[in-house]
Amino acid sequence: MSEATNGSETIEVEALPTIYDYCVRVYQAMKEEASEETLGAQYGDAEGLVYDGFMTKLIASLNFPVPYYTKILGELKRMDCIRQLRRGGSTTTSRWVLLQEPTVELFVKMPASRKPGGSRIEQLEQQVRDLTNRLNEGSPDG
């Protein structure tokens, strides 16, 4: 049994699932390759760490089972550790802003997603962000 603190509250945790360890390791690998950048207007033009790369290759480089890819990213998004700035593809890297490191408290306390990828509204919000970023990248000012 392990303990985690959340302010003044102590959380008793039997045993953390393997997925938590995978999330920590993926986040650290992303952080090692991330660079400090000015984020878009949706982040108040603040500075932040941005990972630009192929997530499938990063996860494979850590020797995690391929089926865990979706679960790892889902858990990191659920804990609000990362947000996708741009979707990748076979030849295009994805871009992710790193918001906060995964912790036991976040893993235990954050509500579980109803389905991978979040709610329909979250999916639509992400699509709007993706399209806005594409438009900004193609404009002479962006």
What features would you describe in this structure?
Helices cover 42% and strands 22% of the residues. The chain is α+β, with helices and mostly antiparallel strands. The protein has one domain (2-138). Helix 1 (18-33) packs across helix 3 (68-78). The model has no long low-confidence stretch (mean pLDDT 80).
Number of helices: 5
CA-to-CA gap between the ends? 51 Å
The portion of residues assigned to helices is: 40-55%
What is the SS-derived class? Answer: alpha+beta
In total, the number of strands is 6
- Relative strand content: 15-25%
Largest sheet, in brief, is: 4 strands, antiparallel
What is the N-to-C succession of helices and strands? Answer: EEHEEHHEEHH
Task: Please give the radius of gyration in angstroms.
Answer: 16 Å
Unreliable stretches: none
Q: What is the domain tally?
A: 1
Strand order of the largest sheet: 3-4-6-5
Quick one: overall form?
globular
Mean pLDDT: 80
List the SSEs and their pairings.
Elements lengths: L1 E5 L2 E5 L4 H16 L1 E4 L8 E7 L1 H7 L6 H11 L3 E5 L7 E5 L5 H6 L10 H19 L4
Antiparallel strand pairs: 1-2, 3-4, 4-6, 5-6
Helix pairs in contact: 1-3
Summary, kept brief:
By secondary structure, the protein is of the alpha+beta class. It has helices at 18-33, 55-61, 68-78, 104-109, 120-138, and strands spanning 2-6, 9-13, 35-38, 47-53, 82-86, 94-98.
Notable traits:
142 residues, 5 helices, alpha+beta, four-stranded antiparallel beta sheet
